[in-house]
Amino acid sequence: MTSLSGSSKNGINSRFSFDADEICPICKNNRYLTPNMKLLVSDCYHKMCESCIDRLFANGAGPCPICQRILRKVSFIEPTFEDLRVEKEVKIRRNLSKQFNKRQEDFQNLRKYNDYLEMVENIAWNLINEVNKKETEALIDKFANENKEIIAHNKRKQEEETKMVNYLNEKEKSEKRLKFENYKKELDEEKKRREKHEAELIEELANSKGSAADILAEKKAMREIEDSQEFDPISSEYLDIDCYTLKDKYYDPYTEINTRLRAGGFIPKFVHERALQAAFSGLFTFTKSDDMEVE
């Protein structure tokens, strides 16, 4: 009996349980009872449902029921992340990046740049965890006043880089779109050509007194000649390159001196043969009757 009640507790209750973040801390309503309930987050990172926000801040600014911070209705936004700690950290780091936008080229050496990054990380940690808040905010104001010109310069630079990235992305999309349209146009033209050939073939078969087999064979031969005029490296037959004679040894100071090539199973002959194949690849169309040797 005890085990049965225990399994019932762990099974049924866990099945109908809901996250504490899905409960409005003001009216205690939850998504299980109200599936359409929408929770918004404030500047102090406390969630409330839209009904409570309309009721508490309908007449203007008012204190947060949880932390007493003065809030306005327009300050509530829909959260991006379910975890409010992540929401808070992302927003703080985004705001800090607007002022602490120095780059490595703004420092005399890497050590000073690393110290700067460590300082920014400490500031972010203090704001996220609300430690030494007044001192941290004073440090931020001091840094902003002392580095106005650099902050403004890097801001403009960042905007220009963003515009350039957006321009390149749009250009790449436009080029891909154009390539796709051209490819689609080629397919349509190829389809029309085939339909025209089929119509001509049907008409010729209907009006000709000759053998249908001979007409089809002639059309097939003509089509093969047309197709052979365009080189397709994928569908074309691969031909071995055997128009040279590979010597056992060459004068090659590169393979003799370069110690990086001396690995297990390495033979200089492989490099020489690869070089000869690359040199003669695609230069000629060879047949079995060709007798060409190169040393």
UniProtKB/TrEMBL annotation:
Residues 24-68 form the RING-type domain. GO terms for molecular function: cyclin-dependent protein serine/threonine kinase activator activity; zinc ion binding. This is RNA polymerase II transcription factor B subunit 3. It comes from the Eukaryota. Pfam families: MAT1, zf-C3HC4_5. PROSITE patterns: ZF_RING_1, ZF_RING_2. The keyword Membrane does not apply. InterPro entries: MAT1/Tfb3, MAT1_centre, Znf_RING, Znf_RING/FYVE/PHD, Znf_RING_CS. PANTHER family: CDK-ACTIVATING KINASE ASSEMBLY FACTOR MAT1. It is found in: Nucleus. Residues 140-207 form a coiled coil. It comes from Funneliformis geosporum. Keywords: Coiled coil, Metal-binding, Nucleus, Zinc, Zinc-finger. Gene3D superfamilies: Zinc/RING finger domain, C3HC4 (zinc finger). One of its GO terms (biological process) is regulation of transcription by RNA polymerase II.
